[in-house]
Amino acid sequence: MALPLRRFEPSKIELLRERFIVAWARTDEVFAIIPPNGILSKPIVWRHPFIFYVGHLPAFSWNQICGALLKWKSFNPSFDDLFCRGIDPDVDTGECHWHPEVPDQWPSVSEVVAYRDKVRSAILDSVEAMAHCGSTDVMAQRGRVFQMVLEHEYMHQETLLYTMQQLPLEKKLRPQPFPRYSFQSAPRPQLIRVPAGKARLGVEFSDILFGWDNEFDELVVDVPSFRVDSLPVTNGEFFEFVHSGAYQDERYWRPEDWRWKKLEEKTHPNCWIKQGEDWLYRAMFDWLPLANVSSWPVYVCLAEARAYACWRGKRLPTEAEFHRAAYYGPDGRESTYPWGNATAEKHHGNFHFNAWAPMPVGAHPAGNSWWGVGDLVGNGWELTDTPFAPLPGFTPYIESYSDYSRDFFDGKHFVVKGASWATDVDLLRPSFRNWYQAHYPYVFAKFRCVSR
Ligand SMILES: [Fe+2]
Fold first, then answer.
1. Cis peptide leading into 278, omega within 30 of 0?
2. Distance from first CA to last CA of the chain, Å, rounded?
3. CA of 448 to the centre of ligand 1 (A)
4. Could you report the average pLDDT of every consecutive run of 10 residues in the chain (452 residues)?
5. pTM metric for this prediction
6. Residue 96 Cα to ligand 1 middle (Å)
7. 155 CA to middle of ligand 1, Å?
8. What is the side-by-side order of every strand in the sheet holding 380-387?
9. Distance, CA 246 to ligand 1 centroid (Å)?
10. CA of 87 to the centre of ligand 1 (A)
């Protein structure tokens, strides 16, 4: 059902401004984790130093809203260009899509923050200006461009956080107040049969107020019945895989994954470390005994998840199987969230920065899907074995951003679904697709196994 086309009313203008102010406050809270002397650090080699992202968020906002649509004269064209696009190289080859040349020396923090603040002020002005600009551009309608810029901000908050997770603890400042960790034990996982049926991937353009171009068009597929773990794999379960020696056994790995594992000399997940006989877990701000977080979902990359599933005689779900497990019930009933159509709340899952860390799996039974599958949305993105590819009818429509999706339709990125603790609630719609490379081990991503 198409939603009515409307210009912004004054109350909506104020509401939108408020949403930007709230989003920026969280961005600032995330950047405040990095002390001033750490702003040039680059804990993941495949990403820019933090200073780039301080400039990238306002540059993207300016370019999309004030530049592309309102045609306002830039007050800093060189920063608009320098910070317009980040990097996401192929982790196997180092090859990278087009991006602005990396300068010998990044601008100072004070210059970039001054630019950010001027852009933020312009964005607040742009909300009303957009309502009166008369643009016929599709991004100017229904507030699409504002939603896009907000979602871009949310996605970067999460990528910044998993990047910061790689920093040594002494190089981070803990936010205050900081929620307490949950260490309770997890319920026993069940094996749940999901009957054959249809799954709707993507969405029709007119059916949602905003979606990224990779979410369109809708594709309905038939999914054979399958059995799925009711809960994601925990640190405790994955420890059995490592401790048994199977992590080091080539038989369980795909050849390309084994090559990566050997090259990187991986012997366990990225968040773990062995100190003498003790295993520790690296949370964002603390080293914790691994045994204390055995009920938390294990965060791994797709290569590691595939090896574990093979060891168990199972496999990873497809994107369509995730949809069947999450959004469907008997008689073809379909819902917006696994728990139904009720607005997403804290008791449904670990998302929207409620915890700043994973929580024990199964801690949110109110968020279970109709079949009784838990933790599908929240507590870590769900890895699928479906290559990230365009849905039929894919049409780039976002100026200067459409190449972004196309650049990653390369067979090396895979769809991930759901949400992590660091995912804004706005990104929980079923059609939202995230994507990562199989050999990129930094993401807040978990997995579960399926079988016939
Ligand atoms: Fe970006």
1. no
2. 35
3. 29
4. 43 91 98 96 90 97 96 97 85 77 90 98 96 91 94 97 96 92 96 97 94 94 98 98 98 98 97 96 97 98 98 98 97 94 97 95 98 98 97 81 69 96 97 96 97 94
5. 0.95
6. 15
7. 8
8. 434-437, 413-419, 380-387, 445-446
9. 38
10. 9
